[in-house]
Automatic annotation (TrEMBL):
<dbReference type="InterPro" id="IPR047111">
    <property type="entry name" value="YbaP-like"/>
</dbReference>
<dbReference type="Pfam" id="PF01963">
    <property type="entry name" value="TraB_PrgY_gumN"/>
</dbReference>
<dbReference type="InterPro" id="IPR002816">
    <property type="entry name" value="TraB/PrgY/GumN_fam"/>
</dbReference>
<feature type="signal peptide">
    <location>
        <begin position="1"/>
        <end position="22"/>
    </location>
</feature>
<protein>
    <submittedName>
        <fullName>TraB/GumN family protein</fullName>
    </submittedName>
</protein>
<keyword id="KW-0732">Signal</keyword>
Length: 317
């Protein structure tokens, strides 16, 4: 559950920069590649993640399953993804962070959830995670505590060389802007906030405590590392089995949260892809890889809407 929450957090435009705490050992910064190294990575780029062609009405669109953290060498699209990018008219992301209205919603506390008053002990634990993440005091002031936690969680992956700076959505957005390719959002910001943050303060506090427990006990980094490896290898089976092996779904409430964060968002994502495709536009929809899992996966939703789905990468094993 925590990984789903943190993965979506990376689409909410949080500012993660700023000076580090002097008293805290910080994870190494990503390697700054030389022009020669960048050129070599570009020439040797491999297809990673999962790429599908979806066809209807005599026209092709594409679904690309992404990871919200990555390594520098993952910044370069492989041959099949490059070919798809050259064919499409629109890049569709879960949220379009270049949209002013979206950013305005995200800059305010969620309208559906009351202010979460944290007990001093819980606030102290959350602030400790800010120091461990090497964020300056007040860097995330005004954010909902659950969004704070998600940010600290994803930043912990930097110790394993996985950085949000190399998340696929961010890199695809940069590429699209350079090419003049329009970007659209498949969800609206308020709906995504409702999926990420419980409206019930008691449930929000419970989720915060569980997430902090997982982070403090060192259970999150191995989870993210395994997911990243599965994504890079195009291992959908491991990602689909996430709910079993993540050791993060402990009770009925956790299962309900998982469904709300993943399955229940898929019809909206599918409807957005279908609507743009029906307008005569070829779409590359880049969505978090876990949306391809579950009983109501995005690909199942698209098949139900009459799309023929063909996996392009990885090929048959």
């Amino acid at each position: 559950m925590s990984w789903l929450r943190l993965a979506c957090t990376l689409l909410l435009g949080l500012s993660l920069g700023g000076p580090a705490f002097a008293a805290t050992a910080c994870p190494p910064a990503p390697t700054q590649a030389s022009p020669e190294q960048s050129a070599a990575w570009g020439r040797q780029a491999q297809d990673r993640g999962l790429l599908y062609r979806i066809s209807r009405d005599g026209r092709d669109s594409f679904v690309y399953a992404t990871m919200h953290i990555g390594r520098p060498e993952w910044a370069y699209p492989g041959p099949k993804l490059q070919a798809a990018l050259k064919r499409v008219d629109v890049l569709a992301l879960e949220l379009d962070l270049s949209d002013a209205a979206t950013l305005q919603v995200l800059s305010r506390p969620p309208a559906h959830a009351p202010d979460l008053k944290l007990p001093p002990a819980l606030r102290k634990r959350l602030d400790a995670q800010a120091r461990l993440a090497c964020l300056p005091a007040g860097a995330l002031a005004g954010q909902h505590p659950l969004m704070e936690l998600s940010t600290y969680t994803v930043l912990a992956a930097r110790w394993d060389g996985l950085d949000p700076s190399f998340g696929q959505e961010l890199l695809l957005s940069l590429w699209a802007r350079e090419q003049g390719l329009p970007i659209i959002g498949l969800e609206d910001a308020a709906s995504q906030q409702r999926a990420l943050i419980p409206g019930d303060a008691k449930l929000a506090l419970l989720s915060l405590q569980k997430g902090l427990d997982q982070l403090e006990q060192g259970r999150v980094r191995p989870l993210m590392k395994r997911l990243a490896q599965a994504w890079a290898q195009g291992d959908l089976a491991t990602m689909q089995d996430y709910a079993r092996w993540c050791d993060c779904i402990e009770d009925a409430q956790d299962r309900a949260d998982f469904i709300r964060l993943n399955d229940e968002r898929n019809p909206t994502l599918a409807a957005g892809i279908e609507a743009k495709h029906a307008q005569g536009k070829s779409v590359l929809a880049a969505v978090g890889a876990l949306h391809l899992s579950g009983q109501a996966s995005l690909l199942k939703q698209l098949r139900q809407r009459g799309f023929v789905v063909e996996q392009l990468h990885p090929g048959p094993r």
